[in-house]
Write a structure and sequence with these properties.
Strand order of the largest sheet: 1-2-3
Number of domains: 2
Structural class: mainly alpha
Oligomer: single chain
Number of helices: 6
Distance between the termini: 44 Å
Mean pLDDT: 82
Largest sheet: 3 strands, mixed
Number of strands: 3
Length: about 120
């Protein structure tokens, strides 16, 4: 996606798109730092991490940042579903991550969760 021409057939201001893109995209190096926790992995560490329980199902980084910033106003959509989810579930997860445990627990119950997660009781 080229932010310079993406909205050319609309009345939406490019500045709005630029604000969105800066909030919801990361560069390759930023993705690497978030996923690796700022550490550099050697081949053995990489293998151990990607085969560990949970690594293959932790999509938080991609859910929050479904776009890769390629530079020069160009962005690659990494996950269309996560991008489409941002207006609805993105708001849900944004609020959830900003609450303390008791507030988050109440928020989950209000949103339809059947019970509090065991670690929050």
């Amino acid at each position: 996606m080229d932010s310079k021409s993406f909205l050319s057939q609309t009345r939406l201001p490019r500045k709005t798109l630029d604000i969105f893109l800066s909030a919801r995209s990361l560069t390759f190096n930023e993705f690497r730092d978030r996923i690796a926790g700022g550490e550099r992995w050697n081949r053995s560490e990489f293998k151990d991490r990607i085969t560990s329980t949970g690594f293959g199902t932790d999509f938080r980084t991609f859910r929050n940042y479904p776009l890769l910033d390629l530079g020069a106003g160009k962005h690659l959509i990494l996950d269309l579903q996560f991008l489409e989810d941002l207006p609805a579930s993105g708001l849900f997860f944004h609020l959830l991550t900003r609450l303390d445990k008791s507030g988050a627990s109440g928020y989950l119950l209000a949103a339809g969760a059947r019970s509090r997660p065991p670690q929050w009781k």
